[in-house]
TrEMBL record:
One of its GO terms (cellular component) is cytosol. Pfam families: ADH_Fe_C (PF25137), Fe-ADH (PF00465). The keyword Oxidoreductase applies. Signal peptide: none annotated. Residues 21-187 form the Alcohol dehydrogenase iron-type/glycerol dehydrogenase GldA domain. This is Alcohol dehydrogenase, iron-dependent. PANTHER family: ALCOHOL DEHYDROGENASE YQHD. Belongs to the iron-containing alcohol dehydrogenase family. It comes from the Bacteria.
Length: 397
């Protein structure tokens, strides 16, 4: 996603400010807490995706918990939420005067709700909420979330990624105004997820950690240790989450790990590299692949391309996350790329364009799309130019 590259040429931790106001309410049966968490006099619009929340009873539980309030519903927010859909909810809210939003779903519903919250009563062209990167957002409606899919961290961060179909754009914005007030994380709500979404969630969370970790050392000891702990946890529980969908312990750990992977904590004071996400967004918008599939395709080639710059941190990753202690720094770094690819494949997420029936014909349109979206100086050094991105796409075929 989301955070721009933060150049840091020194070996010291960067100065930082950390702010995260989202209340997490975690555990089985916690949807009932909505009655306490939502203001009593609120007129609430509940936002959801397709049919999953209705089918698995989550929506009924929400309705029951909010029964003493005025409640409306807006369904149909699709995966990779589209401006064209969200703008209808904005009009509904402006016409009917809802003053609190509740997102029930995965990252797409939550991201969509963030856009809606900021776009309601936004003066001027509402697409500017996204194109300004969030900098023009002055106010937003308050909202909470009921998370049903561990993956994006959107339930505890200020980022959102919105697609505008007619412009072939998938762009991120960030604003302190769109932190959720609260998020309810009930691991039981993930039991109905299809395997593909669990696989996607594990890979997405893994790459979120990697993009805040796999840069160059700045002596940020606790950020590194947290990141390595999250990666090791995903490697351990990812396969188990696929094998046994109703293992509460595994789902609870997965849910909290995915949240911590992108709630800002491990990214403070360290250089970040969101290039894999940025290349991935273009693949989704042009060819419709799932977000995590795009990351699994790009990351191994990105690591190869950036071997020289990232080698020290990659060797640390090999040692501390994968237990590889033999060989030179370069050999360890190379081994870590292989193990990363194997992990994604073991999670049933394919790592080559050809696995998705995409050929070299995709390369130039993808490069053009990056240029059109001004994604021309990516990575922690800002040196991933369109030329470098082209090499990465070609290496991923
Ligand atoms: O639409 P329904 O019927 O609800 O089905 C959804 C959807 O089809 C289904 N689902 C969700 N919870 C379920 C369930 N099915 C059964 N049982 C449940 N409990 O899962 C499908 C995918 O949902 P989606 O919300 O699209 O997935 P995810 O959470 O992976 O979100 C992906 C989106 O988040 C953005 C991505 O770009 C993508 O648009 N990201 C947002 C980030 C952020 N805000 O910080 C960071 C990420 O990098 C990511 O970019
Ligand atoms: Zn992601």
């Amino acid at each position: 996603m989301i955070f721009p590259a933060i150049p840091n040429k020194g070996l010291y931790m960067n100065n930082f400010e950390f702010y995260n106001p989202t209340r997490i309410v975690f555990g089985e049966g916690k949807i009932g807490e909505l009655d306490r968490l939502v203001p009593t006099n609120a007129k609430v619009l509940v936002l959801f995706g397709g049919e999953s929340a209705r089918k698995n009873g989550t929506l009924d539980e929400v309705t029951d918990a909010l029964k003493s309030r005025q409640v409306g519903y807006f369904g149909g927010i699709e995966a990779n939420p589209r401006y064209e859909t969200l703008i209808k909810a904005v009009a509904l809210i402006e016409n009917e005067g809802y003053d609190f939003l509740l997102a029930v779903g995965g990252g797409s519903v939550i991201d969509g709700t963030k856009f809606i919250a900021a776009a309601v009563n936004y003066p001027g062209d509402k697409w500017e909420v996204v194109t300004s990167g969030g900098s023009t957002i002055k106010t937003a409606l308050p909202f909470g979330t009921v998370l049903t899919l561990p993956a994006t961290g959107s339930e505890m961060n200020k980022g959102s990624v919105i697609t505008r179909e007619e412009l072939h754009s998938k762009l991120a914005f960030m604003s302190d105004k769109v932190f959720p007030q609260f998020s309810i994380l009930d691991p039981v709500k993930t039991y109905t997820l299809p395997p593909r979404q669990i696989s996607n969630g594990v890979v997405d969370a893994f790459v979120h950690v990697i993009e805040q970790y796999l840069t160059y050392p700045v002596n940020a000891n606790v950020q590194d240790a947290f990141a390595e702990g999250l990666l090791k946890t995903l490697i351990e529980i990812g396969p188990k989450a696929l094998e046994n969908p109703t293992d509460y312990d595994v789902r609870a750990n997965l849910m909290w790990t995915a949240t911590l992977a992108l709630n800002g904590l491990i990214g403070v004071g360290v250089p970040q590299d969101w290039a894999t996400h940025m290349l991935g967004h273009e693949i989704t918008v042009l060819y419709g692949l799932d977000h995590a599939q795009t990351l699994a395709i790009i990351l191994p080639s990105m690591m190869h391309e950036k071997l020289a710059q990232k080698q020290a941190k990659m060797a640390q990753y090999a040692e501390r996350v994968w237990g590889i202690h033999d060989g030179s720094e370069k050999e360890k770094a190379l081994k870590s790329i292989e193990l990363t690819r194997q992990f994604f494949e073991s999670m049933q997420v394919k790592t080559r364009f050809k696995d998705y029936q995409l050929t070299q014909d995709v390369v130039e349109p993808l490069v053009d799309s990056l240029v059109a979206h001004n994604m021309v100086t990516l990575g922690e050094h800002g040196d991933i130019t369109p030329e470098v991105s082209r090499r990465i796409f070609i290496a991923s075929l």
